[in-house]
């Protein structure tokens, strides 16, 4: 009888060790999966949230210029055509945009400052290269930079947003 009990106990021990290995493997796979999912979320959230990676001044301007429930007055700008700052010098950007104003009275101030605003936007656009603006994140960052530049010329009101109505890179 004692020999049979030893035999039964020795058969059960390997099964317990085997089941522990399976549990350890499953937990390891779960931890690796959760780590990859978390890392993927942080990498992907960089492209979803436009305010990540911006300096403090840009983030403040983005918050200040966030769209409200009501649509502001739109001020169309003439198309901009610029050579991009690529080393080959063969790429150019054609873009048309509209500025969303905080109030209608701001349109007169924009008209008075239009040469300065256009110059500032032209300098900004021509300083960009293809890699800076071909992604959605790059276009959003460019929009935020334009808002900051234009708002520096305005004394009464703000530019809430910039809408690209045409954006062609060739």
Written description of the protein model:
This protein is α+β, with helices and mostly antiparallel strands and 170 residues long. It folds into two domains: 1-48; 56-169, Tetrahydropterin Synthase, Chain A (2-Layer Sandwich), CATH 3.30.479. Helix content is 58%, strand content 17%. It has helices at 2-48, 56-64, 106-112, 114-126, 130-133, 136-153, and strands spanning 73-76, 80-83, 92-101, 159-169. Strands 1, 2, 3 and 4 form a four-stranded antiparallel β-sheet that branches. Strand 2 (80-83) and strand 3 (92-101) form a beta hairpin. The protein is elongated. Mean pLDDT is 80; it is low at 48-52.
Topology at a glance:
Layout: H1 2-48, H2 56-64, E1 73-76, E2 80-83, E3 92-101, H3 106-112, H4 114-126, H5 130-133, H6 136-153, E4 159-169
Antiparallel strand pairs: 1-3, 2-3, 3-4
Helix pairs in contact: 4-6
Features:
170 residues; alpha+beta; Tetrahydropterin Synthase, Chain A; 2 domains; 4 strands; elongated
Low-pLDDT stretches: 48-52
Q: Which band does the percent of strand residues land in?
A: 15-25%
Q: What percent of the residues sit in helical stretches (DSSP H or I)?
A: 55-70%
- H-E order: HHEEEHHHHE
What's the main sheet like?
4 strands, antiparallel
Taking the alpha carbons of the first and last residues, their distance comes to 88 Å
- The value of Rg in angstroms is 29 Å
Total DSSP E strands: 4
- Overall mean pLDDT: 80
Structural class: alpha+beta
By CATH, the architecture of the largest domain is named: 2-Layer Sandwich
Judging from the principal axes of the Cα atoms, what is the shape?
A: elongated
Q: CATH topology of the largest domain, anyone?
A: Tetrahydropterin Synthase, Chain A
């Amino acid at each position: 009888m004692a020999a049979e009990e030893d035999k039964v106990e020795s058969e059960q021990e390997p099964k317990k060790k085997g089941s522990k290995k399976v549990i350890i493997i499953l937990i390891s796979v779960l931890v690796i999966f959760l780590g990859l999912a978390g890392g993927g979320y942080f990498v992907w959230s960089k492209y979803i949230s436009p305010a990540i990676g911006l300096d403090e001044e840009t983030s403040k301007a983005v918050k200040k210029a966030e769209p409200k429930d009501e649509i502001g007055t739109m001020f169309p700008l003439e198309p901009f055509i610029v050579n991009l700052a690529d080393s080959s010098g063969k790429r150019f950007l054609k873009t048309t945009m509209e500025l969303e104003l905080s109030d209608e009275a701001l349109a007169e101030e924009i008209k008075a400052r239009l040469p300065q605003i256009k110059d500032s936007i032209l300098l900004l656009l021509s300083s960009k290269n293809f890699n800076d603006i071909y992604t959605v994140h790059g276009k959003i960052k460019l929009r935020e930079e334009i808002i900051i530049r234009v708002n520096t010329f305005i004394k009464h009101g703000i530019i809430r947003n910039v809408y690209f109505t045409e954006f062609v890179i060739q």
